[in-house]
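This section describes the prediction task in plain terms. A model, or a person checking by hand, is given the sequence of a single protein chain and must write out its three-dimensional structure as a string of tokens. No templates, partner chains or ligands are provided. The sample shown here is typical of the held-out split.
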Amino acid sequence: MKYKRILLKLSGESLMGDKNFGIDNRRLALYAEQIKEIHDKGVEIAIVIGGGNIFRGVQAEEGGMDRTHGDYMGMLATMINSMALQAALESAGVQTRLQSAIEMKEIAEPFVRRRAVRHLEKGRVVIFGAGTGNPYFTTDSAASLRAIEIEAEVILKGTRVDGIYTADPEKDANATKFDLISFDDVYSKGLKVMDMTAFTLCKENELPIIVFDMDTPGNLLKVVQGDQVGTIVRN
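The expected answer:
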């Protein structure tokens, strides 16, 4: 394996599958199978998942709700997804721990960096829920922050597309894919990988990001093995 400790970032929308809202159990099971596959090979895995399939803080603003209030609602949505993924992983026989940035002692441990690292060392998958615990920060920022804190070697960003393109490949047939691109080039070309706070954290801490298609079975294993799958962003 090329990578020993990774942070996997999943979007909430990816859990919808073909639905318009909520969680597709088949998609959840597919993700659990892929995560188990690399777990069984000794990879230490931390996961951050978004909440966009249930609620987004920006939705609240559009409806006239206070942004801070909306962001906390979004954090709770990430906890629902995190609990669903935890259940799917444990059904597949993978020991999992859920840590929350907001205290929810009945359903999750509080986030404690040393404890999270110890879980990883013991072969448990650790899911970080509730973002950073602060409004105005996305789950991309939470993924970058947690990855740095646990000293992950890479962030693997699972998406619906197989990498970073010059334009949206779903809209532009002439869009071409990058196999490797620098942080500076992503910024200068105005490409969307993560929000700027998350992106800057990765750049300054020399933490590479690999954007890949998580919906294709076997891709996660290929990425961790170091195969050319997706797009690598690094300094």
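For orientation: The chain is about 40% helix and 20% strand.
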